[in-house]
Design a protein that fits this description.
18 strands, Rossmann fold, seven-stranded parallel beta sheet, alpha/beta, 4 domains
Length: 660
Amino acid sequence: MSAEQLLQAAVGAVPGGASRPGQQAMVAAIDKAVREREHLLVQAGTGTGKSLAYLTPSLLVDGPVVISTATLALQNQLVEHDLPRLAAAVEPVLGRKPTYAVLKGRHHYLCVAKMEHADEEAPTDTLFDDAPPKTTQWLGEAGKLGRQIQRLQAWAEKTATGDRDELDPGVDDTAWRQVSMPARDCVGAARCPYGADCFAEASRARAREADIVVTNHSLLAVDMLADRHIVPPHKLLVIDEAHELADRVSSASQAELTPEAVERSSRRARTLLSPAAVESLAEAADALTVGLAEAPAGRITGGLPEPLALAVARVESATRAGLTAIGEVKSDDPDPVRKQQAKAAFDDLNDTAQRLLEESAFDVAWVEKSDLGNGRRALVVAPLSVAGTLAQGLYSDRTVVATSATLTLGGRFDTVARSLGLPVAAPTAATGPEASGDGWTSLDVGSPFDYPRQGILYVASHLPRPQMSGLPAAAGEELVKLVETLGGRTLGLFSSRKAATQAAELLRARTDLPILLQGEESLPVLVRKFREDKESCLFGVMSLWQGVDVPGDACQLVVIDRLPFPRPDEPLAAARAAAVDANGGSGFASVSVPIAAVRLAQGVGRLIRSTGDKGVVAVLDSRLETARGYGAFLRNSLPPFWYTTRSEVALGALQRLAGK
């Protein structure tokens, strides 16, 4: 039995289905990588059918195969559509029906221990320090939270999985926190009185028995940081949407201190601490509040300001004393679950405080102040780079296949390979776009789309170089001309909320077209309206650059207002660029340009989603044409559209699409 035979069986089960050359090449490359125990990077353009290309060879691997995705949409697509169809199609050929399971973090599952005590305590994240009397528990049975908790209690009696995603209709995060348990708060099945009934443990047991386990990048990152104790042992790991992995590992390695977290930890441990210890925690929270109020938002260079340093030292001392007072969690404790929650909160705060006080050259610290009006302030610390973490934790004892539609930047794999912690051999003129290194190879299987015939990339090179934030007047006029010529059907991808709002206001004032603006309604509703109304335009910011899939004539113009370089106030990007500069390199070229290349490729990729799609991508930033060096690099990171800088060519194409 070969992977190619399984692929043929899978595509043959779909009416009119046929495997594609890129799909076949990807199957063969993965099969070879598994046999030779070699890691593989595969760029597979939209329309390749890469999900089936990595799922079919996975069925021939001994033991579980883990598939990790970045988005909930792809995870659902695999579990609800691709895997059921594949399992049914290959059963006659394979002689058995393959099994699959989803593995999520503990907080996605109902916690029986917390449900059993739900009517004994108030929510720990409310404004109240003291538990309300039973007659007003859950903020009153008539309240929204009370009704949601009651529904969760009823659901708990009948659910087989305890998976939050199976609860329909859902509940908000505040309600769910009262019945779920983050991993750091869990005492473990062996010490929990309800361990035998644990939904999270049951999900892990199902994963250990399945042929294919579907998880997400965030849990995969936590698994690496926890010495691989969460995901079941496996020989093959497939990372889809691999361009997102490094950012997810950075997020998992990030930690923060807030006054609210210190206060919450004190409330959780109140019955376990002396009054003096509780007072010490309150003073630490107050000091942190003052220190954050005085510090400006942004990256911290040259060490913590004195008020913040003193506040962090107080947090470290108070939480260390709290940990000593709590002691070890034992199975015969009267309430091991609550004790573990208190201990975990102090552990997190103490570790973060020590990390900040050490001021390691490998970490970046910054003050974060919300602009949403909620007054949230935090002191955050994150690793300068996660390439070393990935190099050490990702590749040992398994074959890793990393795939995405955007793995080559500037036409080469080198940049992404380095970000994923892979050693890169020095390029030569003979290597072409594929890169390789010790123990890994790469392959670009292309795309079934005929990009030069299906789409035009128009760069408005006559426009002034963008300077100020927002939408420049000249770019606004160009936008109006393009949208009016087509008569809607436009996805506008903007670098800032200010620019998106200005664009929406301009089009509403100058046209009668329906203009949908991100933030005015939920994103799924906006996308549905955009898909259904052929005259509508959808404008928004970064989440639209990756999350919108609208094939057909509902989206025939994608407008990008400016190149999506990281903002100067993005702490991690700025720190990483500064580190490269300090070592004699170019931080802009090594950090900012690759970030822009990935974002731009994702945005441009919104246009052609099927073999019948046609349209224009219009970039209103002249630097894509005029900037020496990085302009060509960015263009080489994009699909090979027919390229022009002439406005009349783009407008003519839009007129033909509009049937004018």
